[in-house]
Amino acid sequence: MKTLGIIGGMSAESTVLYYQIINRETNARLGSNHSADILMHSVDFEKIVALQKAGDWAAAGALLAESARKLESMGADVLVLATNTMHKIAHVIEQAVDIPLLHVVDATAETVKARGVKRVGLLGTRFTMSDGFYSERMVKLGVDVMVPSEKEQAEIHRIIFEELCLGRVCADSKSYYQQVVRRLQESGAEGVVLGCTEVGLLLKENDCPLPLFDSAQIHALAAVDAALS
User: Could you tell me the pTM of the whole model?
Assistant: First the structure.
């Protein structure tokens, strides 16, 4: 079994899900009392949020690159960045270490295509929906991407940071996300990527008329594949 190095804390809520999914899946595959071989460095999310708001992605990248180096020095074989948004600086992390980084977009696009879906709506932070790093990589991998309107993006982003990242799941916010999904469906989306690791706390498969692709779940399961390969 390979050792997974998880860069977590962005947010702590979603990092808990990664840890739980990876260990439960490892046990399901190996049986007995097996669990995953994991090293984790959980950062102070407030520092990351402040850098995001300031647009200082270079400083954010340097911070996470240092986290990656710590995990590599401790013996990690594969890195998992337990957040979607910070994959914006995935290349910085990759350049800082000699071990592979399991990219969330690659894992998600592979799962989308396996379901025969060619065009998806994307829900995530404002950075993920509008900065292009996520959509462009999905397109290169063969999946067309639609995003909500700017007004919808602003509210989706607010709900993530003011509610979901703090463990608050509100019925009104769930209804809002469902409305956005319906509008994406009307515009031609065949599925929806939950491109934020917290959105799966709010929306489940049976909540929407389209197939949902929970990136956190997909990414965590891909991490198990990598660890056991």
Answer: 0.93
Q: How many residues does the chain have?
A: 229
Check if 83 is active-site.
yes
Do 198 and 156 form a contact (C-beta atoms < 8 A)?
no
Cβ 99 vs Cβ 77: under 8 Å: yes
Cα–Cα distance list, 193 to 131, 174, 220 (Å):
16, 15, 15
Residue 170 among the catalytic residues:
no
Short-list 211, 200, 202, CA closest to 21: 200
User: 144 pairs with which residues across the strands?
Assistant: 119
Instruction: Decide if 86 contacts 156 (C-beta within 8 A).
Output: no
Q: Which two tokens stand for residue 24?
A: 């439960």
Give the C-alpha separation, 174 to 34, whole Å.
Answer: 36
- Catalytic residue from among 125, 196, 197, 208: 196
Read off the pLDDT of each residue in 21-32 and give the average, rounded to a whole number: 98
How much is the average pLDDT of 34-41? 98
- Among the options 15, 26, 83, 197, which is catalytic? 83
How many Å apart are CA 82 and CA 48, to the nearest integer?
13
Q: Are 36 and 224 in contact (CB under 8 A)?
A: yes
Phi, psi of 158 (to 5 degrees): -60, -45
The tokens describing 114, both together, are 């396996």
